[in-house]
Amino acid sequence: MVYLTRKIEFSASHVYHNPTLSPRENKRIFGKCNNPHGHGHNYTLEVTVAGEPDPVTGMVLDLKELKEILEREVMQRMDHRHLNKEVSELKGQIPTCENIARVIWNLLDPKIKQGKLHRVRLYENADLFADCYRNGAGARV
Amino acid sequence: MKKDALHIELGRRYHFSASHRLHNPRLSDEENQRIYGKCNNPYGHGHNYTVEVRVSGSVDRATGMISNLTDLDKFVNERIIEPFDHRSLNEEVAEFQKTVPTTEVLCIEIFRRLQKFPHAKLEAVRVVETSNNSFEYTGN
After folding, report:
1. DSSP code of B91?
2. Catalytic-residue membership of A80
3. pTM, to two decimals
């Protein structure tokens, strides 16, 4: 098995606020991330696809195709957007790394036809990230 | 896809600087020198360590989080950063008075200290000693 990883970067704004909680609770749980006007990050996304290289092309999947999928599914949806207000898949969710990584997994998984989506890693900054795997998929590469 | 079809981990990186010396008192000076080379210098030397901590669990619907970062940061600060940062690992950390503080041993010790984090399951600890060396321990 070979694990292929492609990286992209996008910038977006968000705010952490749960309308079912009081303003005080929101402040206590989310701290600075609860600032009502939002704030932004440069996100880095690493997408890892697992598979055997095709005997003819030598590729797990065509990187050009993966690049197009990432452009369509992630960049056009999230780059230079407000994640709470403009990304319908995140509606009603707090746009944490965990939730964004899961949304990205669900967008990409059905689109990747060659190889199998293995890991989605989303960095909010160099010191904070979330990893998403298929449950029971084994190796956490 | 159902939520429990996915396994989600939260990763957080922490930084500390410390000195160490690789020396096993049960070996001769020549043996220590042969095995540890420059790392056996009697006055020790230091690194800027990065510790990557990965935890898993269900993502709370109300907060969108596996674990509140404030809780994780406090736990790691108390157990790792405060006792290790700007210290001599050999002289000031009790565990390393009996063992050689290679980064392998350090990585296992950090995992042991963080294993009881109450809000999520500790999956892995990765310690980066320099940009060329890193070590990961998953508890087995």
Report:
1. H
2. yes
3. 0.93
Which chain A residues are within 8 Å of B6, Cβ to Cβ?
102, 105, 132-135
**What are the domain boundaries of chain B?**
3-137
Q: Specify the pLDDT at position B80.
A: 98
What lies within 8 Å, CB to CB, of A54 at 6+ separation is A60, A114
Q: Which CATH superfamily is domain B3-137 in?
A: 6-pyruvoyl tetrahydropterin synthase/QueD (3.30.479.10)
pLDDT of residue B1: 46
Rounded to the nearest angstrom, the minimum Cα separation between A71 and chain B is: 22
Per-residue model confidence as pLDDT tens digits over B100-126: 999 999 999 999 999 999 999 999 999
Q: Does the annotation mark A17 as catalytic? A: no
End-to-end CA distance of chain A: 11
